[in-house]
Amino acid sequence: MRISVVIPLLNEEESLPLLYGELDEVFSAMNESYELIFINDGSTDSSAEVLAGLHNSDDHVVVVNFRKNFGQTAAMAAGFDYAQGDIIIAMDADLQNDPHDIPKLVAKIDEGYDVVTGWRYDRKDT
């Protein structure tokens, strides 16, 4: 496995299909082995059902459901534990991180960098 994308989430039923669509588009063009690890941090909306549908339709999708909300740090740690990739990318499920930046991040790793980070320059908090 080359790339693992770890995505912690809480109550993101509306953004999940959009995020998945963008990730699918990006990875279809990249021709890399990958997995998308969604960590459902005790959502009370229909996020679990949306994720189950994605998992059932795509073998790249891994879902971890927490019984209750443990917080983003615990969700991220669980995602790192599940990750099988040589490269691990962490991103939020709320569409604040652009999946189309993933090829640029991976290119920097391929240039020999050990760690690559990005930043949001047009953040939209709700």
Description:
- There is one protein chain.
- With 126 residues, the chain is an alpha/beta fold.
- It has a single domain (3-110), classed as Spore Coat Polysaccharide Biosynthesis Protein SpsA, Chain A (Alpha-Beta Complex), CATH 3.90.550.
- The chain is 37% helix and 18% strand.
- It is built from four helices and four strands.
- It has helices spanning 15-30, 47-57, 72-82, 102-110, and strands at 3-9, 34-40, 61-65, 87-90.
- The protein has a four-stranded parallel sheet, with helices on both faces.
- Strand 1 (3-9), helix 1 and strand 2 (34-40) form a beta-alpha-beta unit.
- The longest helix is centred in the N-terminal third of the chain and has 16 residues, at 15-30.
- The protein is globular and about 40 Å long.
- The termini are far apart.
- The mean pLDDT is 96.
- One of its GO terms (cellular component) is plasma membrane.
- Keywords: Cell membrane, Glycosyltransferase, Lipopolysaccharide biosynthesis, Membrane, Transferase, Transmembrane, Transmembrane helix.
- This is Glycosyltransferase.
- It comes from candidate division KSB3 bacterium.
- Residues 4-125 form the Glycosyltransferase 2-like domain.
Set out the fold topology.
Elements: E1 3-9, H1 15-30, E2 34-40, H2 47-57, E3 61-65, H3 72-82, E4 87-90, H4 102-110
Parallel strand pairs: 1-2, 1-4, 2-3
GO molecular function: glycosyltransferase activity
InterPro entries: Glyco_trans_2-like, Glycosyltransferase_2, Nucleotide-diphossugar_trans
Protein name: Glycosyltransferase
